[in-house]
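Hi V.,

You were right to ask for the full record rather than a summary. Here it is.
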Amino acid sequence: MSWIIGIVSFLVGAAAGALLFRTFRSDEVKVKDLEDRLKKLSEEHENYKDSVHSHFNNSAKLLTDMTESYRNVYQHMAMGAQTLCPDYISSQLSLSSEAKALLDKDSFGLNGSDTQNLHISREPPLDYAAKPGPDKKSAFAEDYGIERPADY
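Predicted structure:
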């Protein structure tokens, strides 16, 4: 009979040991799993950032190329107008001094000498700039564009 109590005690102890091992070991496994997931997500985030950076660099290059192409097309059309069209048409399409000045600028609207002095002041776009005058409201005012009756 004592050997039955020994076997039962052994089995109960083995089950309790296995349960404790599983409980404590599972925390280590969870930590390892979370560390692996964190590493994977960090790598995905870095790849995404690199992709975004590459996209915007490529977009800037393409926009610069497009600006140069438009400039070349305009110059070609103006030169063709001067040589192929009658004077009254070519005078309208030819390179005026204003058009020549615009064509001499780079894609950012800067002359070659302006790139040396990058402290050029720039005005904000007028679509959201504050309107002049006390009775005028900017587009960010909460009642902008709402007409109210005079007796309101």
